[in-house]
TrEMBL record:
<dbReference type="Pfam" id="PF03547">
    <property type="entry name" value="Mem_trans"/>
</dbReference>
<feature type="transmembrane region" description="Helical">
    <location>
        <begin position="120"/>
        <end position="141"/>
    </location>
</feature>
<feature type="transmembrane region" description="Helical">
    <location>
        <begin position="235"/>
        <end position="255"/>
    </location>
</feature>
<keyword id="KW-0813">Transport</keyword>
<feature type="transmembrane region" description="Helical">
    <location>
        <begin position="6"/>
        <end position="24"/>
    </location>
</feature>
<dbReference type="InterPro" id="IPR004776">
    <property type="entry name" value="Mem_transp_PIN-like"/>
</dbReference>
<feature type="transmembrane region" description="Helical">
    <location>
        <begin position="36"/>
        <end position="54"/>
    </location>
</feature>
<feature type="transmembrane region" description="Helical">
    <location>
        <begin position="292"/>
        <end position="317"/>
    </location>
</feature>
<keyword id="KW-0472">Membrane</keyword>
<feature type="transmembrane region" description="Helical">
    <location>
        <begin position="203"/>
        <end position="223"/>
    </location>
</feature>
<feature type="transmembrane region" description="Helical">
    <location>
        <begin position="261"/>
        <end position="280"/>
    </location>
</feature>
<feature type="transmembrane region" description="Helical">
    <location>
        <begin position="95"/>
        <end position="114"/>
    </location>
</feature>
<keyword id="KW-0812">Transmembrane</keyword>
<comment type="similarity">
    <text>Belongs to the auxin efflux carrier (TC 2.A.69) family.</text>
</comment>
<feature type="transmembrane region" description="Helical">
    <location>
        <begin position="176"/>
        <end position="197"/>
    </location>
</feature>
<keyword id="KW-1003">Cell membrane</keyword>
<protein>
    <submittedName>
        <fullName>Transporter</fullName>
    </submittedName>
</protein>
Length: 318
């Protein structure tokens, strides 16, 4: 129980549990959750991302494991579509099976277990995670929606090229990848962030982990699973178990090991990210199922993530 892995995981579980208790007690109202989320995404997250990446040189980044991550994503995503059918419901489930909560849970978890080196690897993934995955998902959703509405009377649809460009723009002009890109560009200048700026960034970044994890717990307290439990559990098992297994198998087949691959496997084992709900809401498909899958996969992840971390720290990192 005194191993670094378990001592790093205990705060993650504890903060989520405290947030859940706070929500259940009504100390934070459901209407305030969105405001807390905005604080995390718009203030704390950019501070941590920029400060961490402002000392990283591009030539030191390792994009190999990131590429494997997207190959694993493609395999699980395509397999889901093949089983569910090429429709908006299949697209929603495919995205839920593959889109990880890399920010709210991934950042504090990887930071505690792997330190700054692990965060740099994770931020390398995060810098293109939403851009690639959400752009690909947008194309699939639009094609599936067009197929479902083919022959039906109604309004005109936006051209595909415009939809893709808009998705790419939204993936870049965003409070997550934008500070990563800005930090990397600043690092290449050779300058150092002044102490008067660096200190506030440090304090804001340190607040991200606890507040983000508390927010996860609060969100769980207000999420109702109900009759969607079975469908949500199927998604949770694919997301938290199958996805990291596929990624680990690819890494093993290619003879890879080390910290970057370990971080990618852990990232693949993370629960379903909240962005999936935005897609289900936009296309009005499986909204309750996706909401339930976020909650169920988070609860399941508290069991599966420690197992994944123990395995990768012993056999991948060595």
């Amino acid at each position: 129980m005194n191993s670094p892995v378990f001592t790093s995981l205990i705060p993650v579980i504890l903060f989520i549990a405290i947030g859940f208790y706070v929500g259940r007690r009504g100390w934070i109202r459901a209407a305030s959750v969105k405001d807390l989320a905005n604080l995390v995404f718009m203030v704390l997250t950019p501070a941590l991302l920029f400060r961490t990446m402002s000392t990283v040189h591009i030539q030191d980044l390792n994009f190999g494991p990131v590429g494997i991550y997207f190959v694993a994503f493609g395999i699980v995503y395509a397999a889901t579509l093949a089983l569910q059918g090429f429709n908006t419901l299949g697209a929603a489930r495919a995205l839920a099976n593959t889109f990880s909560n890399t920010l709210m849970i991934g950042v504090p978890l990887v930071g505690l277990v792997f330190g700054d080196a692990g965060l740099v690897t994770l931020f390398t993934l995060i810098s293109v995670h939403s851009l690639i995955l959400l752009t690909a998902a947008t194309v699939v959703f639009e094609l599936a929606a067009a197929r479902e509405h083919a022959g039906q009377a109604g309004g005109t649809q936006q051209p595909m090229w415009r939809t893709v460009l808009q998705a790419m723009r939204n993936g870049i002009v965003h409070p997550v990848p934008l500070p990563i890109i800005a930090g990397l560009l600043f690092a290449q200048t050779g300058l150092v962030v002044p102490q008067v700026v660096d200190k506030p960034l440090l304090l804001l970044g340190q607040a991200l982990g606890p507040i983000a994890l508390l927010l996860v717990g609060v969100t769980l307290a207000f999420t109702k699973v109900g009759h969607q439990f079975k469908a949500a559990m199927r998604i949770a098992l694919v997301k938290c178990v199958v996805h990291p297994v596929v990624l680990a198998a690819l890494g093993w087949a290619l003879g890879l090991s080390g910290l970057p691959l370990a971080v990618m496997i852990v990232a693949a084992s993370l629960p379903v990210g909240a962005n999936v709900f935005l897609f289900s809401q936009r296309y009005r498909v499986a909204e309750e199922e996706v909401t339930a899958s976020v909650a169920v996969s988070t609860a399941l992840g508290l069991v599966t993530m420690p197992v994944v971390i123990v395995v990768v720290t012993r056999w991948v990192v060595g």
